[in-house]
Design brief:
Layout: E1 4-11, H1 16-29, E2 33-40, E3 48-56, E4 70-75, H2 78-83, E5 88-97, H3 104-107, H4 116-126, E6 129-133, H5 135-141, H6 148-157, H7 164-174, H8 180-193
């Protein structure tokens, strides 16, 4: 076991908070000491969301990661990945849901949304690897965009040495019974989006 710092970023309404809650609970069941902190934008729905989740085999000293210390940046939206790169370790890894949700400054015409190649160049300067995948399309293929967060968790689970059953159990306990089967499918589909990675 080793200590891990994770940062989950996205836009309000994408399910980032539930995803970070699940990561925290998975860590506890895997035997880690865990701390978590959420930072919400001014408008919860549509505003930036940042959730710090820290695991340590002994003791986590503070709930938020310092800049330059995050092992995994898990971004539900492309621009939010770029905005939070300062938290990533030099050899950290980035997972990006290839979805574009323009912030107010872009919608108002004050700024332009960065080109995907520009975002990729920014991540490549810092990250050991960046993985892009279309989580929203995967969720919609399953019949509900609301399982986007679980699709992303499935992708992220490839990087962490925790038994799949732990993830499934925590996810099932976190959603209403009638949606458990759908979420299990979402998790499995997400796992297939990012495969063949080095497990911590």
């Amino acid at each position: 076991m080793k200590d891990l710092n994770m940062l989950v970023t996205g836009v309000g309404g994408q399910g980032t908070i539930l995803a970070s809650d699940i990561i925290a609970e998975v860590g506890m069941r895997a035997g880690y000491d865990v701390k978590k902190s959420n930072v919400l934008g001014l408008a919860v729905r549509g505003g930036s969301v940042r959730s710090h989740v820290r695991w340590d085999p002994e003791s986590v000293s503070a709930p938020m990661s310092s800049k330059g210390t995050v092992n995994y940046l898990i971004s539900f939206e492309k621009l939010e990945a770029a905005r939070n790169l300062s938290y990533l370790k030099q050899d950290g890894e980035v997972l990006v849901n290839n979805q574009e949700i323009p912030p107010v400054s872009v919608s108002a015409g004050d700024k332009a949304y960065p080109d995907i190649n520009e975002i990729k160049k920014m991540t490549e300067k810092v990250a050991r690897e960046t993985y892009y995948f279309d989580g929203l399309a995967t969720a919609e293929d399953l019949g509900s965009s609301r399982v986007l967060n679980v699709v992303i968790l499935g992708a992220f689970s490839n990087f962490i040495d925790v038994d799949e059953k732990v993830w499934i159990d925590v996810i099932s306990e976190s959603v209403p019974p009638k949606f458990q089967e759908l979420n299990k499918k979402a998790f499995q589909k997400g796992k297939k989006l990012v495969e063949g990675v080095d497990v911590e």
